[in-house]
Amino acid sequence: MALGDRIAVMNNGMIEEVGTHEKIFYKPEKEFVARFIGMKNIFEGKIAALDEDNGVLQISTGNFDLTTVFVPSSVGTRVKACVRPEEIILTKSDRNTSVRSARNEIAGRIVSISQNGPLMRVLVDVGGDEMSVDVTRLAARDPGLNRGDRVLLTFKATSVHVIL
Is residue 91 domain-shared with residue 27, that is, in the same domain? Predict the structure, then answer.
């Protein structure tokens, strides 16, 4: 399948957003567009800290914190933090994962594992919220992932998209 160089997303006959494939699929400006294109992990939060020197900011969702790349904003601003399911690395929490470059680490417990086309969708409870993670069939089978397993979700700060 090939897409044009610009995409328009419509809602009830009105254009919500127009942009390149990269912008629409990975950096949507509106929550409706993010949900429409399949961004399953969208969390309400507020900016808890800004670190311009290191180019990052902290978002608190109430159940967990996220680190993302700096966007011009101020502490206390309410935002939506989005993470695509395929951007998350899932490991069993009993595995040695001491060498990581990801800024975000969230512990959770597997709620369900289901087929999602050629991938497996793993739904993980993270302190009362749920995160969807897409992994290959082998990535789900080889470590023996099962419902109820404790896991660690890791992803880079650049994987977190902020909708102001």
Answer: no
Total of domains in the chain? 2
The CA–CA distances, whole Å, from 42 to 83, 93, 96, 148 equal 7, 24, 29, 23
What is the model's pTM? 0.91
Query: Are residues 90 and 33 part of one domain?
Result: no
Give the pLDDT band (50/70/90) at residue 36: very high
One domain for residues 33 and 95: no
Domain annotation covers residue 125: yes
> Going by C-beta distance under 8 Å and a sequence separation of 6 or more, which residues neighbour residue 154?
88, 89, 91, 97, 100, 102, 104, 105, 106
**Distances in Å between the alpha carbon of 123 and those of 44, 88, 90?**
18, 12, 11
* 90 assigned to some structural domain: yes
Q: How many CB atoms sit inside 10 A of residue 95's CB?
A: 10
Domain span including residue 107: 85-157
Handedness of CA 29, 35, 39, 42 (dihedral sign): positive
Q: What is the pLDDT of residue 46?
A: 97
